[in-house]
Amino acid sequence: MKKYICLVCDYIYDPKKGDPDTGIEPGTAFEDLPDNWTCPNCGVGKEDFEPVK
Question: What is the phi/psi pair of residue 29, to 5°?
């Protein structure tokens, strides 16, 4: 599973870790995050993320 980086604050979403603070379990692919999920650091939406190269 690919990691994704926030283009605003450089937060990296790592699917191996998930986002436990918002109830996203480890192993959740970025594509499977809810549409209303936002960056835990700066609050932007999924549209402001891109795959880490």
Answer: -65, 150
Residue labelled with tokens 């480890």: 26
Q: If phi over 0 gives left and psi between -120 and 50 gives alpha, with beta otherwise, what is residue 40?
A: alpha
pLDDT, tens digit only, all 53 positions of the chain: 999 999 999 999 999 999 999 999 999 999 999 999 999 999 999 999 999 99
Question: Is beta strand 49-51 parallel, antiparallel or unpaired with respect to 12-13?
Answer: unpaired
Rounded to whole angstroms, what are the CA distances from 35 to 2, 7, 43? 18, 17, 13
Q: What is the pTM of this model?
A: 0.93
Q: What is the pLDDT of residues 2-12, one digit of tens each?
A: 999 999 999 99
